[in-house]
Description:
Blueprint: H1 2-7, E1 15-17, E2 20-21, E3 27-28, E4 31-40, E5 43-50, E6 59-62, H2 107-125, E7 195-198, E8 201-204, E9 225-231, E10 282-284, E11 287-289, E12 307-309, E13 316-317, H3 320-329, E14 338-343, E15 346-352, H4 357-368, E16 383-392, E17 395-405, E18 412-414, E19 416-419, H5 428-443, E20 448-449, H6 455-475, E21 485-486, H7 488-495, H8 499-508, E22 512-515, E23 518-524, H9 525-537
Parallel strand pairs: 9-23, 10-12, 18-20
Antiparallel strand pairs: 1-4, 2-3, 4-5, 5-6, 7-8, 9-21, 10-11, 12-13, 14-15, 15-16, 16-17, 17-19, 22-23
Helix pairs in contact: 5-6, 6-8, 6-9
Amino acid sequence: MADNCSSVEIVEGCRLPVLRKNQEHEDEWPLAEILSLKEVSGRKLFYVHYIDFNKRLDEWVTADRLDMKKLQFPKKEAKTPTKNGLSGSRPSSPEREVPVVSEKKDTNNDTALQKKQRKTLDLNLQSATAPSRGKTLPTPVQKRKEVVPLVTPVPPATPVPALPSSTETSQAAVFPVVREPPTFKAREDLEPLPTVTTNGTARRLIPPQPGRKRKANCGGSDEMIKVLQYNKPQSAGVFLPPPEDSQDSSDGIPTAPRMTGSLVSDRSHDDIVTRMKNIECIELGRHRLKPWYFSPYPQELTTLPILYLCEFCLKYLKSLKCLQRHLTKCNLRHPPGNEIYRKGTISFFEIDGRKNKNYSQNLCLLAKCFLDHKTLYYDTDPFLFYVMTEYDSKGFHIVGYFSKEKESTEDYNVACILTLPPYQRRGYGKLLIEFSYELSKVEGKTGTPEKPLSDLGLLSYRSYWSQTILEILMDLKPDNGERPQITINEISEITSVKKEDVISTLQYLNLINYYKGQYILTLSEEIVDGHEKAMQKRHLRIDPKCLHFTPKDWSKRGKW
């Protein structure tokens, strides 16, 4: 397949199948997009992104892994009218030459020609914009300034084809813009999009998909729920409708950028540079890490085969010799800040983003290599960083961390959370999550992680919430011979998990059932056995007695 590469020129944006190994080490040919090209030692390399795969799997490949027989060239962008600099959202019609009409010709002929052209264009667009036929299409060149777009000028997520095909009826959710009426007034006839107001900020909720119904909201958080154990599993399908503050989307795009110190990326700055990994390898202590995503390290360091970091202060250096010279001067053997927890070899350090700015910024740069949905364009001053370390004779080695806002108006107790790759799948992620909720318990608050979560973060949080809630439900004892009862509020107060997360977890586990006018929680043998096995594997736990933490009232401090 490499021979075909020389005859056909591959450009950025092309799509074609690329050979890769799956988890079972078998060959597969997923569709991939070419993001960049380069030539190294006379060999062409192609940076590919596998469509519908996580970006951390993106890689440089050689030409022999490309299937040139199924090459798809990028489609040209539709040339549509623009308004205020925004791209038009009208489907494009085939380009054609418009005959120039002489000014000396009869006005009636001119009008007839306009009607003929308008009729031809209407045929091309009638299925997409039937309500606006003949009213909003542009007239010939003389009246080009009076063009009105067919729909509201919101750019579509993907280019809309010129002529709708028969399959478009099943893709209404993919191309919602085409289905909109031509004016805002016509939208009053449709069902209005629901909005939710959180702390004075209005957010537009995504309309539910057809056939999916939101489960009941448990009749209020204070309603008593009876707990049944050791019943047969329910046959109802599992469905997790997201509460307003939960995450159930895979795009990871917040509805609107927040004006606080949030580290959530709004994706408005995405370009071809930030979509590509720019660091080849990082050496951190005794580990070498392969970054998953782009991180804005200085440009001159991105060309190095290995980027060296001091594992104690996280300073980045360009060579091993520079690192060795730095270690003779660096006196740190643990993260700066206060050690607020120690049990065995595990310690947690609290670091103020204002007092230890260099360390906090270096930590963010390292974390960005493994977090795709966060950005670094905010100052670290409004944040606290909690770094988990493992101790040995050489010092305290960083395992992972989480950050949180000093003042969160939305009850966020975590902004970013990361376990470094060498320590993943060993229980450290749940330990970080458990520690964040222990801090919330000391503060007397309920908390929730900042959305959106990464795919791995969402899995870890769902697992933690499930185990924590099931642990409480299984410890309930019957009261006077009756089945034990508990409310959502009580679960939230015991665990410091926000009510919305408790409800979504109960629905995710399919525990809530409505029976004879009341809600009951049904714990099947399958769920109980699975929970007991999971808890046997969970050896790392936070001991509240080893936590020495005094919360501060940041609202009374002028500048944090």
